[in-house]
Amino acid sequence: MFEASRLRVARAREHLAALKLGIDTFFNQNPYTPFYERGSEPDERLIRLRVHAQPGPMLGILSGEVAHHLRGALDYAVGELVALGTGVAPDSGRHFAFPIYAQRSRDYKSAIKKNLNGVQSSAVTVIDSVQPFQAQGGEPERSSLYLLHRIDIENKHRALHVLLGGAGLLRFSHRGKTGARIVSIPARWVDNPYVFPVEDGTVAFSFFSSGDPESHMDIEIDTFIGFANPAAAYAFNVPRLLESAAADVDVILSALEDVVS
Questions:
Q1: Rounded to whole angstroms, how far apart are CA atoms 139 and 154?
Q2: What's residue 94's pLDDT?
């Protein structure tokens, strides 16, 4: 069951592999070069980034293709469920779709009736259980399923995805005298160690040091590619988010198979 959906997921993973390769190629060209300078405050040290290149538009196209195949796989599954429940394959005049909502709203209830008409109740229960508003932690608009939905809408109807680089602290260690007066890190980097997007001169990290000649700092800056649009997915790590969405789609298809087979 859901052979067509599985084929679309497989195609999405092929595009995702190409996307990851493109991102690796981009970073292998050393597009961001860190440099060091003193800050405006006493003992402040800044790590800035010199930007030599930004991700090309083809990476945005690939990300959209991944999202579109994953989203389409869910809609294909609903079409198959309609055919199974009614005994008739839905024709071009019948509307069906996999609903994805961040709130259990009136619109959601209407979509269930309209888009899942003919679908077995057990399958409807599964679809309801995976909705973003059911997400643990109470942040439905940050769930990968909801973001997949928003990314696909942006890609199909509004604009090409723009992908930009982000950066942040991966590792920081200090050898020498200890104590806050020797080396300290502003709380800003503890709360959120990443900056997005990276522009020429962006401060990727800062710290305070007394300048002890015996001190030695090891600093490693991490880089990633994030979505600049849609707004819902802003700054999310592109391959990480799409990989999570692909895993979600696999789980949903398997759960649906379990209740209707």
A1: 21
A2: 73
Radius of gyration of the CA atoms of the chain, in A? 23
Q: By residue range, what is the domain housing residue 105? A: 3-260
pLDDT digits (tens, 9 = 90+) for 149-179: 999 999 887 777 899 999 988 887 766 655 5
CB 165 within 8 A of CB 224: yes
- How many structural domains are present in the chain? 1
The predicted pLDDT at position 259 comes to 93
Which has the closest alpha carbon to 134: 104, 99, 98, 97? 104
Distant-in-sequence, close-in-space partners of 51: CB < 8 Å, separation ≥ 6: 31, 32, 165, 198, 199, 200, 201, 202
- Among 198, 249, 261, 252, smallest CA distance to 71 is for 249
**CA dist., res. 225 & res. 14, Å (int):** 19
For the chain, give the number of residues.
261
Mean pLDDT of the chain: 89
- Could you tell me which residues come within 8 angstroms of residue 63 by beta carbon, excluding any fewer than 6 positions away? 19, 151, 155, 161, 163, 227, 238, 242
Pick the more confident residue, 135 or 120: 120
Nearest alpha-carbon partner for 99 in 136, 124, 69, 134:
124
